[in-house]
Specification:
Strand order of the largest sheet: 1-2-3-4-7-8-9-12
Number of helices: 15
Order of helices and strands: EHEHEHHEEEHHHHHEHEHHEEEHEHH
Strand content: 5-15%
Shape: globular
Radius of gyration: 21 Å
Distance between the termini: 36 Å
Largest sheet: 8 strands, parallel, barrel
Helix content: 40-55%
Oligomer: single chain
Length: 367
C-alpha cells in the first residue's frame, strides 16, 4: 500500500508540504496543474517545475489527479479530435517525468455534487453533505452558487469557464443518454489507451459522485456492472479504475468490500473514505473510522491487504476539525487522522499474517 496525499499546489492550498511531511507513512503527493484549463496541453516545462518542487520534500510524484476530460469529448462533438490529441500529448509529457497513474472521470458537466459544504456533525466538526430532496428540488444554478461560494480556491470539476456555459451545455446533453455516453467513452479510450500503455501509464477512471443521475444527466460509472463494461471495452493493462469507497459506496447497493476483492487488481489508485448513509437517500462524510459511517473501511483495507495491494492509496475527503479553515473536504487534520487509521489497520493485518500459531511454534521448538 503506497500512501499518498492530495495537494493542490503552491498558493492554491491551505496545507503546505512542510506540514504533509510530518504525517508518518506518506510516500507520494497526488498532484495536478490546477491552473490549466480543461483541454489544454500540459507543457513539459510546467510539469518539470511542479514535479521538482514536490520531490524536493522527498515525495514521489507518480499519481496525477486529475487530467480532466473536455466536455466535447464526453459529448462526442467534432472538435473532440483535437482535445483528444491534446490529451495524448499530456499523457506523453507526464510519462517523461515518471508519472505512473492518471485519475480522470467521465461525468457530464458536474463533478462531485453536494448540497452543503460545511454541514455540522454532532461532535462539532463539519463535513460535505448531500441532501437528496434539496438537490432534486434545486435548479442547477442554485447548486453552482452553493458550491462556488464555498471557497476562493480552485474546485476541480467546477471550473468557472465551464460553468459560464451551463445553459449551452445542458442543451447539448439533451441528446446524450447513457448509451451514447458509453459510446463516447469507448471512442476516447480506444484513442488514448495505446498511448498510455506505450509510455507505461495506467488510466484510472473515477466513479461518478454520487453514482446516480443528477439533473437528468447520464451517469455511467456507478457499480460493478460499469467495471465489467469498461473491461469489455479494452482489457489493456492501461485501462484501470480509481477505487473510491465514498463515491461508489454512497449507493448502499454497492458492496464496497466485494468490489475491492474483485477489482483491486485493476485499480492502481484508491480513495478511501467513509460516509454515513440515511434511509431517505441523504449522506454525509464522516471520519475514516469504520464505526462512524456506513462503509466497512476495515473490510476494504483487509481485502486490499489480502491481495498484497501495492497501488497508490490516499485518504479521501476529511471532516473540517479543530477550527481549520480549508478547501471543502481537504483540510490537513482529519486526513492525517485518516492516514493513521489506514496504516493502523494495514499494520494489524500484516501482524496477523506474520504470526505463528501456538501449535506451529511448539512443533518448531520440538524440532
Amino acid at each position: 500500500m503506497n500512501i499518498t496525499f492530495r495537494w493542490y499546489g503552491r498558493g492554491n492550498d491551505t496545507v503546505t508540504l512542510e506540514q504533509v511531511k510530518q504525517i508518518p507513512g506518506i510516500r507520494g503527493i497526488v498532484w495536478a496543474l490546477h491552473h490549466k484549463q480543461v483541454g489544454e496541453v500540459w507543457s513539459k516545462q510546467e510539469i518539470k517545475k511542479e514535479v521538482e518542487y514536490i520531490q524536493s520534500f522527498g515525495f514521489h510524484t507518480e499519481v496525477v489527479e486529475s487530467v480532466n476530460v473536455h466536455e466535447s469529448i464526453k459529448l462526442g462533438t467534432e472538435d473532440r479530435v483535437q482535445y483528444i490529441e491534446n490529451y495524448k500529448k499530456t499523457i506523453r509529457n507526464l510519462a517523461e517525468f515518471g508519472v505512473k497513474a492518471i485519475c480522470y472521470n467521465f461525468m457530464p458537466i458536474f463533478d462531485w455534487t453536494r448540497s452543503e459544504m460545511f454541514h455540522p456533525l454532532g461532535d462539532g466538526s463539519t463535513a460535505l453533505f448531500y441532501e437528496k430532496a434539496k438537490i432534486e428540488s434545486w435548479d442547477p444554478q442554485e447548486l453552482i452558487r452553493t458550491v462556488s461560494a464555498s471557497s476562493d480556491l480552485t474546485l476541480p470539476g467546477w471550473e468557472p469557464e465551464k460553468l459560464d456555459q451551463i445553459s449551452e451545455l445542458f442543451e447539448a446533453y439533451k441528446n446524450v443518454d447513457e448509451t451514447q455516453l458509453w459510446s463516447n467513452l469507448e471512442f476516447f479510450l480506444n484513442e488514448i489507451l495505446p498511448v498510455a500503455e506505450e509510455v507505461g501509464i495506467q488510466m484510472a477512471i473515477h466513479p461518478d459522485d454520487p453514482p446516480w443521475s443528477i439533473f437528468g444527466l447520464p451517469r455511467i460509472i456507478t457499480g460493478s456492472k460499469s467495471y465489467e463494461k469498461l473491461i469489455a471495452i479494452s482489457d489493456s493493462k492501461a485501462n484501470g479504475f480509481t477505487l473510491c469507497t465514498g463515491s461508489m459506496g454512497s449507493n448502499p447497493a454497492n458492496d464496497i468490500v466485494e468490489i475491492s476483492k474483485k477489482y483491486a487488481y485493476r485499480s492502481p489508485f484508491s480513495h478511501i473514505r467513509n460516509v454515513k448513509i440515511y434511509e431517505n437517500g441523504d449522506f454525509i462524510e464522516t471520519s475514516h473510522y469504520t464505526q462512524d459511517g456506513s462503509i466497512n473501511i476495515r473490510g476494504v483495507v483487509e481485502a486490499l491487504h489480502n491481495q498484497g495491494y501495492q497501488g497508490y492509496v490516499r485518504p479521501d475527503h476529511g471532516r473540517h476539525i479543530w477550527g481549520e479553515d480549508c478547501r471543502p473536504g481537504y483540510g490537513l487534520y482529519d486526513r492525517a487522522l485518516g492516514i493513521m487509521y489506514l496504516l493502523g489497520l494495514w499494520d494489524a493485518f500484516e501482524r496477523v499474517k506474520q504470526e505463528i500459531s501456538p501449535l506451529e511454534e511448539e512443533t518448531m521448538t520440538c524440532k
